[in-house]
């Protein structure tokens, strides 16, 4: 019985180490994703200012960018995995808008 409790305690302690390592990895990925988001937004805006992109595409990109920018600035309100997933989804949306803008250009 004592060995079983010791094994359970050791497993619990080790799972905490794995979680900390995973969160650290996600935090690093989050920083890279937020940087990619900023780059994609800047590229989109440089094309959108030329005036050929539909206003609906500009509005959609702006809404996504504003919403995720706050997550990148202060990701502590949610788990790192949730924030990373939201940033990745926003990046995909902004990248799609950028592709539309490039086609119009």
Question: Given the helix and strand composition, which structural class is it?
Answer: mainly alpha
Integer-rounded radius of gyration: 20 Å
Number of domain modules = 1
Number of helices: 3
Q: pLDDT under 50 segments (min length 5)?
A: 1-18
Q: Which percent band covers the strand fraction?
A: under 5%
Shape: elongated
Order of SSEs, N→C?
HHH
Q: How many beta-strand elements? A: 0
Q: Could you describe the largest sheet, including whether it forms a barrel?
A: none
| Helix percentage | over 70%
Distance between the termini: 72 Å
Quick check: average pLDDT? 78
Mind explaining what this structure looks like?
- The protein is mainly alpha-helical.
- The chain has one domain (28-104).
- The chain is 87% helix and 0% strand.
- The chain has 3 helices and no strands.
- The chain has helices at 2-48, 55-73, 80-104.
- α1 (2-48) packs antiparallel against α2 (55-73).
- The protein is elongated.
- Residues 1-18 have low confidence and may be disordered.
Précis, in short:
With 105 residues, the protein is mainly alpha-helical. It has helices at residues 2-48, 55-73, 80-104.
Characteristic key phrases:
disordered N terminus, 105 residues, mainly alpha, 0% strand
């Amino acid at each position: 019985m004592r060995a079983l409790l010791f094994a359970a305690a050791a497993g619990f302690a080790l799972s905490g180490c794995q979680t900390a390592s995973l969160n650290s990895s996600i935090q690093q990925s989050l920083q890279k994703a937020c940087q990619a988001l900023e780059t994609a937004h800047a590229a989109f805006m440089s094309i959108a200012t030329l005036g050929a992109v539909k206003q609906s595409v500009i509005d959609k990109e702006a809404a996504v960018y504003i919403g995720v920018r706050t997550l990148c600035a202060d990701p502590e309100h949610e788990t790192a995995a949730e924030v990373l997933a939201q940033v990745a989804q926003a990046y995909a949306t902004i990248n799609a808008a950028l592709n539309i803008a490039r086609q119009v250009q």
